[in-house]
Amino acid sequence: MTELAGSAIGSSENDVRNRIFIVDVTNRDGVQTSRLGLAKLEKTIINMLLDEMGIWQSEFGFPTTRHESNYLQANLELMERGAIHHARLSGWVRAVARDVGIAREMVPKLKCINISISTSDQMIGGKWNGRYEFKDVVRLMCEALEQARELGFECIGVNAEDASRTSDEHLIEFTHAAREHGAERLRYCDTLGFNDPFTVYDRIKLLAEDTGIDIELHFHNDLGMAVGCSIAGAKGALDGGVNAYINTTINGMGERAGNSDLVSTILAIKKSSLFDGEEVLDDSVNLMTAWKTAKYASYAFGVPIPVNQPGVGNNAFAHESGIHADGALKSRRNYELYDYEELGRGEPEVIETGRNITLGEYSGIKGFRNVYEKLEVEFQTEEEARDILELVRYANVTTQKPLVEDELLFIARHPDLARKILTLDPLHVNTDRKA
Length: 435
Hints:
The protein is α/β, with parallel strands linked by helices. The chain is built from 15 helices and eight strands.
């Protein structure tokens, strides 16, 4: 068995080709936050904002889940139209060959998937009650991988759920098998937020050196260390000679205490002493849209951004004490590590204090036209306007919130895809087949 314990986070020569890429999982893991969720329209807007932000990939949903099908297909069509032009869209499935087949059947144009299975003794024993052993886990994963390749999926990642509590020997064996059967990346899942930055650096570096596969890093925040573990793991991957892919969610949404926050993670890579100014982050990342993206996710989830949230909290650039205020006014670098302008902040926000017309499920044509005129959207015919109004009504039924500018513009620009996203037809679900 390989020993992974002991050394502190080090600094070694990296291959300049190795980089850190961001894989945002808000629309898969973030929406699993208990008591919360997103409408399909809101998930679509998040995909478009992530694309605008230069995020490498959005894990945008569950291709074996029937109520996701229209939304997933519509977002892939947005890629074909160039409305989503940078971010890859990837689905999540269990490491079951049959599920991979269902994903292909239900979302035929899907190119990228991550298949997931538990690897720790705790979960193998605690979830399957003796029906499976570790060798069966490896076999199921390999069968699912082979099915995915046979069905033409172009990019396939493998998730080791509870990797942080999986023995070193088993984790390395699992990773080698995944690579040999065509996996593009291994997702190291710290499912319970168990790891610390020192431990995870050692584990990821040795895993990278031993297997040579790119490593995806997925950390939960149960102990408040998700961001720290993410960048320490990324450092381990780079020092081990492979690319790192960090999983994030916007505003740190996710099950229990959440996941690695998108903006905090990017800031930690770009501004912390760990990389000391090294250009290791994917060049496409555009922090100028961070403020806009965080605010929209907060509105969509109905969860306020904490006042002290890095970068996007209301107090992130606020100074009150005399020494701090004086120092910040003399030179912002005295008490600010980075500039608010870098995150798209600083512009005044217009707040209506008088008459305010909003659109909802009972809106009429006059109010509808008033709102869209302010957005400088013109309709060619009365029929077109009323068609869009009807879609806006349906959209409000699904979100149960006044529609915001990005949502209204999306509906006007892509009414056919909006209609698909808003369409749910449970009466035609085949209840005999369990997906």
